[in-house]
Amino acid sequence: MANLEAVFAEDMQCPVCLDILRPPVRLCQNGHATCDDCHNKIDRTWHTTRCPLCRGDFRPDPCPVKEQLYYSMKVSCKFDGCKVKGYGREVVRHERRCILREVRCSKCVWEGPHVWLPSHHFTNHVRMKK
Ligand SMILES: [Zn+2]
Ligand SMILES: [Zn+2]
Ligand SMILES: [Zn+2]
Ligand SMILES: [Zn+2]
């Protein structure tokens, strides 16, 4: 019998980031799944909302089966440099508060980890003011 985790890993791989699918999971009409983040990335990079594997359209509804699978898997926080690991459902909650989560500056186009926002703000928006 195949190793259950190996089956999960293969079934749960996103063709765009080659990582584990992260909810919300988007499905194309032929059943290929990508993370919602990756779906948005395709849209921004290639200006298309079609599936990278089959060029099919994505379905508007998310995929609860793969999302449930993710919640019960051991995963790690998606943000670079963060060492937090745990079950998907806990990690999803952690990612919303992760100090390394990607944020966007409200005053310019800067994007980066949340911990750097205050220093970015100080160097770029506070000191500039006369
Ligand atoms: Zn992905
Ligand atoms: Zn597809
Ligand atoms: Zn984290
Ligand atoms: Zn800024």
TrEMBL record:
The record's listing under PROSITE patterns reads: ZF_RING_2 (PS50089)
One Gene Ontology term, aspect cellular component = cytoplasm
- Biological process terms in GO annotation: proteasome-mediated ubiquitin-dependent protein catabolic process
Pfam families linked? Sina_RING
Identify the keywords attached in UniProt to this record, alphabetized.
Metal-binding, Zinc, Zinc-finger
Single GO molecular function: ubiquitin conjugating enzyme binding
What SUPFAM superfamilies has UniProt attached to this entry? RING/U-box
Q: Which domain of life is it from?
A: Eukaryota
**The RING-type domain covers which part of the protein?**
14-55
Q: Which PANTHER family match?
A: E3 UBIQUITIN-PROTEIN LIGASE SIAH2, E3 UBIQUITIN-PROTEIN LIGASE SINA-RELATED
What name is this protein filed under?
RING-type domain-containing protein
Q: Which organism is it from?
A: Zophobas morio
Q: What is the lineage of its organism?
A: Eukaryota, Metazoa, Ecdysozoa, Arthropoda, Hexapoda
